[in-house]
Amino acid sequence: MTSTDYNLLLEQAKAITAGEPDLIANLSNLSALVYDTLSDVNWVGFYLTREPETLVLGPFQGKVACLRIAFGKGVCGAAAATRETQRVVDVHEFAGHIACDAASNSEVVVPLIVNNEVVGVFDLDSPSVGRFSEADAQGLTQLGRFIETLNWPA
């Protein structure tokens, strides 16, 4: 498996969002950028906090997905509840995993925190068990820190 240059990916993310104030437009392009850049992924996107303790499907690339996920449920909900990046080598070993796509076997979810509030999560799935390394999790977390600087509504 080829390694991803996360510094380059971050620079590309900054370039495609520069000067665009619309959050949804930026999240849409970012999900496409990451989906096209990373190998062996079948879903890349965002769940946004639109109700208390509830994540709602946002911009993404991939197959049809779950619409709502409660904080604490599944990998996305765990990231939101713990405020920590979740790297799951085999989602079938993760207690409470929500199988939106039966083809997904590993996952990384980065919580997005703005003004000390979880505004959403950045979610990536792969059909391969063990697809995401610790280096991937760190690179994607770094990208998440940049995403937090976008124009989030107050």
Question: Within the CATH hierarchy, at the fold level, what is the topology?
Answer: Beta-Lactamase
From the N-terminal CA to the C-terminal CA, the straight-line distance is: 40 Å
Low-confidence stretches: none
Morphology: globular
| Structural class label | alpha+beta
Q: Which CATH architecture is right?
A: 2-Layer Sandwich
| Spatial ordering of strands, largest sheet | 3-2-1-6-5-4
Order of helices and strands: HHEEEHEEEH
- The level 1 CATH classification is Alpha Beta
- Strand runs, count: 6
At the fourth CATH level, what is the homologous superfamily? GAF domain
Feature tags:
single chain, 154 residues, alpha+beta, Beta-Lactamase, six-stranded antiparallel β-sheet, 4 helices
Structural commentary:
- By secondary structure, this protein is α+β, with helices and mostly antiparallel strands.
- The protein has a single domain, classed as Beta-Lactamase, CATH 3.30.450.40.
- The chain has four helices and six strands.
- Strand 1 and strand 2 form a beta hairpin.
- Helix 1 runs antiparallel to helix 2.
